[in-house]
Records
---
Amino acid sequence: MTTLLRGGRVIDPSQKIDDVMDVLIEGNRIAATGRNLVEDAKGRKKDPGLTVIDVRGKLVVPGLIDIHTHLREPGYEYKETVESGCEAAVAGGFTSIACMPNTNPVNDNRSVTEFILRQAQKAGLATVYPIAAVSRGSEGKALTEFGDLKEAGAAGFSDDGRPVMHAGLMKRALEYAHSLDLPVVSHCEDWQLSKGGLMNEGLVSTELGMPGIPTISEDIMVMRDILIAEYVGTSVHICHVSSAGAVRILRQARERGVRVTAETAPQYLLLTDEALKGFDTSCKVNPPLRSAEDVAAVRAGLRDGTIEVIASDHAPHSAIEKEVEFEYAASGMVGLETSLGLSWKLVEEGVLTPSELIARMTVNAARVLRIPKGTLKKGADADVTVIDPKKTWTVDVRAFRSKSRNSPFNGWKLPVKAVLTIVGGEIKYSEL
């Protein structure tokens, strides 16, 4: 099968391309990018079997990559399944997603990793990269079998949702993962400081009379993991950065050459703890929504490259976990279907250029995961996302492909929409 995406604005940060041109796909590979790829001087098609898709006025970018999502299967299929999560992914423009291990049972062994991959293959939508647990049962006591998990298909290691409180265990995890050339993805939270907290500690938590989670619970663990990585000479990736202190620590570490990467999520770029004044449980996330000063710092870190990646932190929950008193509500919000549109608001506000935003959702994410994705180079996997920069749309959680509806962005008007998602040369989602 040969497909030509004709006349779109191709933005490929991996090649520093931002120009109007065509993209030619042959089979499951990118064949070429350029102008008038399959026309002769008289404008006649050279290949009568060619499928031409007119994408003039659209953006053509490498398939979006989400390095932090929760698919819930096995164990919590009423919240999400691999298939429904992949449906949400391709609807949001994502061709590759990395799923966290906090399933039931935890993805801490070969059988769970292989099960997730089988379910993803059966769904036949986005490419799924399972992130396996750092510790058995994510209990922070003993390392999982990293080598066996890599052989089974694990793309990295994390106890996301549960911090690795034992510094010695984290040191061994970084050393072991380094020997396998896989990333360790760190959820940075000191439970001794955050225990019992329901939202960011500050003026708003005082006004609402709710116990707070101080920013230092994040900052201390960011500093700890950076220092461990610096000491043992390995890399470390920091999840969902939300505090000004964490940004400052990351920036200083990068300046002295530490191999640290970091991500944030749209909620930490667009919402503050003021959103909790209505006790909306869809705004209860971990780490919590922070102050306006923290949001400004995270935006600055994203702009200057201290934070390289925007991830969705897609965390589906059913009404059972969310339609309860705030104290008892689960933390997390869905994000695969809104991440692109929400993140594009940073382009509208001049925080990032279109190319800078696409880099943070494609090639930068691929580098963290060490996967051959995020590019439109000749011979690369034909993963392509087409974005309509003029298609405004209103978020309606009832229309989500995800099984869950826990989003505080219901009713928001978003400025752009993914209208075509191609994975391995095959169209998986289209609004064209």
Note: The chain has a mean pLDDT of 96.
---
Amino acid sequence: MSIDTIEFDRIADLARLEFSEQEKNEIVAEMERMIQFMEKLNELDVSGIEPTYHVLDFKNVFRQDRVGKSMPLEETLSNAPNVKQVFFSVPKVIS
């Protein structure tokens, strides 16, 4: 696979980006080096290697979801600057 300035112009147009000719040539050269590196990785034999989702063997670290003792409603709302009925009242942030 290779990228040329015509392909780069098409991608830049889709992304609504503008570059000078010098920038365009530098970026195309850099992208070409990246593509060559990725093609080099394709040469590796990974037939006996199982795919991994993460390099570390993580397990689920979440605690069990259990109902527990909660704070009384009056105490919860006591420090709120604005309260409506039994809810926190916050300013509207979406117009």
Note: Strands lie at 83-84, 87-88.
